């Protein structure tokens, strides 16, 4: 399309990593830069942790050693972005990329548009594995089984307690955060199981959550299936043991949102969906970079923000 707008850098994703990249590029005087975010607001995943009276802050702000509402942290990052000249397109999804041409197709309030850039940053974040990807929840799902995002939805948006005696599967930061929310909403102390021998959340991470939750931990347990016909009555482990409860929360195990890269033909490892990086945060095609949780693994929001900021130096060097 000949009317495609051209930018020096396009950033895909307005979470902590994308915001960090935009702030870093502005500090280096690189522009014009455009940031594309499919949601109606900036901030990414932390925005799911809304501030409200009587709500429990469970979002760990590592650099200050305290727990806040995710929305507060994301809001501070967005304020830093607002001080830059970055063009921001909200409610706009990048649906297709042509990596060689650095041409992006966008679907937004004005319909389908295209833009081109000299460099592109993929900061699309990560999502939790689906039951099928986990390979242990075949067929129809019983009621009262959910992922972390469902817990947040039930508790924060609908004010519903999904379980009085929850079983939490997983033991990373996300799992502790879900357990804390359930406790604060009135559940018993959750039973927490994981195939790992010791929790994947580190000692200090667990210490953060002690105020709210001290889950009844069992390691070396591989969840093999759900108990209960209509509603969950617990989890069955691979050795035939039962872990009773009236609701099951499956937490953690993030998968990079690398669909765009995959569709565009950038090098992506399967089935992990991990981006194959050429060097540092540079992707397989020159001029394409990645930042934040799309890189794989579990990283905190501030790590992602600073990861984006650090990436700006590499992009500036590439553009020289
Ligand atoms: C349940 C849970 C609890 C967590 N708790 C903590 C915590 O306590 N403390 C902490 O520091 N971190 C926590 N994290 C991690 C933190 O949320 C992430 O580290 C951080 O949000 C990652 O930033 P990001 O910018 O890489 O990705 P995201 O925050 O996921 O942002 C990615 C953005 O890209 C957008 N996007 C994706 N695809 C497209 C597209 N095609 N077009 C346009 N936009 C697109 C998305 O809409 C999203 O806004 C938690 C994460 C989860 C899931």
Walk me through what this model shows.
The chain has 320 residues and is of the alpha/beta class. It folds into 2 domains: 189 residues, FAD/NAD(P)-binding domain; 121 residues, FAD/NAD(P)-binding domain (3-Layer(bba) Sandwich). It is 26% helix and 27% strand. It has 8 helices and 21 strands. The strands form 6 sheets. Strands 1, 2, 5, 6, 7, 8 and 21 form a 7-stranded mixed beta sheet that branches. The chain has a 5-stranded parallel beta sheet with strand order 10-17-11-12-13. Helix 1 packs parallel to helix 2, helix 1 crosses helix 8 and helix 4 runs parallel beside helix 5. The protein starts with a strand and ends with a helix. The model has no long low-confidence stretch (mean pLDDT 90).
Proportion of residues in β-strands: 25-35%
**CATH first level of the largest domain:** Alpha Beta
The pLDDT mean sits at 90
- Could you give me the name of the CATH homologous superfamily of the largest domain? FAD/NAD(P)-binding domain
Structural class label: alpha/beta
Q: In one word, what is the shape?
A: globular
How does the major sheet shape up?
A: 7 strands, mixed
What is the CA-based Rg, rounded? 21 Å
Unreliable runs, pLDDT <50, ≥5 residues? none
Q: How many domains, in number, for the residues?
A: 2
Instruction: Name the helicity range.
Output: 25-40%
The number of helical segments is: 8
SSE pattern, N- to C-terminal: EHEEEHEEEEEHEHEHEHEEEEEEHEEEH
């Amino acid at each position: 399309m000949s009317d495609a707008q051209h930018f020096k850098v396009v950033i895909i994703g307005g979470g902590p990593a994308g915001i960090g990249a935009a702030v870093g590029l502005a500090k280096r005087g690189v522009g014009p830069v455009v940031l594309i975010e499919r949601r109606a607001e900036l901030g990414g995943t932390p925005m799911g942790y809304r501030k409200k009276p009587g709500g429990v802050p469970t979002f760990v702000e590592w650099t200050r050693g305290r727990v806040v509402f995710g929305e507060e942290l994301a809001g501070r990052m967005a304020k830093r972005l607002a001080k830059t000249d970055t063009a921001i397109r909200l409610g706009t999804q990048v649906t297709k990329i042509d990596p060689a041409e650095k041409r992006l197709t966008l679907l937004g309030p004005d319909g389908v548009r295209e833009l081109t850039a000299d460099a592109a940053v993929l900061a699309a974040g990560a999502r939790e594995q689906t039951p099928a990807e986990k390979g242990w929840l075949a067929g129809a799902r019983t009621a009262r089984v959910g992922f972390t995002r469902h817990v947040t939805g039930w508790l924060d948006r609908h004010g519903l307690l999904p379980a009085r005696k929850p079983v939490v599967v997983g033991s990373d930061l996300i799992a502790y955060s879900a357990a804390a929310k359930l406790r604060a909403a009135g559940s018993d102390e959750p039973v927490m199981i994981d195939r790992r021998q010791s929790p994947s959340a580190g000692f200090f991470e667990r210490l953060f959550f002690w105020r709210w939750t001290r889950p009844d931990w069992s390691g070396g347990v591989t969840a093999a299936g759900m108990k209960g016909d209509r509603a969950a009555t617990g989890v069955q482990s691979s050795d035939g043991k039962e872990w009773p409860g009236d609701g099951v929360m499956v937490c953690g195990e993030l998968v990079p949102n690398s669909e765009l890269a995959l569709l565009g033909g950038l090098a992506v490892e399967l089935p992990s969906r991990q981006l194959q990086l050429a060097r540092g945060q540079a992707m397989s095609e020159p001029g394409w970079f990645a930042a934040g949780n799309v890189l794989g693994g579990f990283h905190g929001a501030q790590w992602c923000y600073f990861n984006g900021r650090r990436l700006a130096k590499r992009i500036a060097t590439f553009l020289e």
